Amino acid sequence: MNAPLIVANWKMHGTRSQCVGLARAIVRQLRKQPAPIQVVLAVPFTALASVKRILRGSRIGLAGQNCHWQESGAFTGEVSPTMLRDVGCDAVILGHSERRQIFHETDAVIAKKVDAALGSELKVILCVGETLAHRRQGRIAQVITRQLRIALKGVGKSAIDKIEIAYEPVWAIGTGHNAVPLQIAQVHRRIRQVLMTLFGKAAGSRIRILYGGSVKPENAAPLATTAEVGGVLVGGASLKADSFLSIAHCFNGN
Ligand code: PGA
């Protein structure tokens, strides 16, 4: 089984020097307490190259928070998967609910990005999740199944080792209201079923499924002992080395 994956999503926070300082603190503290976990930092585009220099020689991965689906072209303001590779990224977050909601990314657009990222040898951390309205309407399974089926349509079995799924209920992101382990386990089991239908039982059961949404040091321990949870995607609490690492260390025993 894969080691738990702990992803920091710094979103649009931090100048280069702030990001470098935070990355340095995380590298230093993880070195002192080596743990059987994988850590990836998803940092703002402008800080990727500087943070990469700090991560050299460590086992911490680097990720972009978005990318375009074309390699190059007249797409003002966009960044391509090749550019992310070039600057030292191993992975990219795609389909984050902030991209879906604020920037109106559709499942079809996310599918194109997934294919392009995999084609550039980037790992994909694909976010899926329902809104509060979906949950109230009892449509969680329907929404998540659609998001997965469309985004992963072009993905062959040989690429599944490059896919991580993050279940991020929209109502839990940045709100302080995290989903409880029972709710998470139910949705993760549904996601697992969909993955096994798409890729077959063996391959579908290998893909890691993370949880994200108001993960904090105070609520991380029960998530770490929930069998269905393969790691976490942490936003706000990843902006301080201490809180990020205390979340990460909850997953040491898994
Ligand atoms: P949050 O963000 O931990 O601040 O809720 C999680 C995310 O958006 O990935």
Structural notes for this entry:
With 254 residues, the protein is an alpha/beta fold. It has helices at residues 16-32, 48-55, 81-86, 97-102, 107-119, 132-136, 140-151, 181-199, 201-206, 217-224, 241-250, and strands spanning 5-9, 38-42, 61-64, 91-94, 123-128, 163-167, 208-212, 231-234. The chain has a single domain (5-249), classed as TIM Barrel (Alpha-Beta Barrel). 43% of the residues lie in helices and 15% in strands. An 8-stranded parallel beta barrel has the order 1-2-3-4-5-6-7-8, surrounded by 5 helices. Strand 1, helix 1 (16-32) and strand 2 (38-42) form a beta-alpha-beta unit. The structure holds 2-phosphoglycolic acid.
* Euclidean distance between termini CA atoms: 10 Å
CATH topology: TIM Barrel
Counted up, domains total 1
Number of strands: 8
* Helical proportion, percent range: 40-55%
Percent strand equals: 5-15%
Question: What does this entry show, briefly?
Answer:
The chain has 254 residues and is α/β, with parallel strands linked by helices. It is 43% helix and 15% strand. It contains 11 helices and 8 strands.
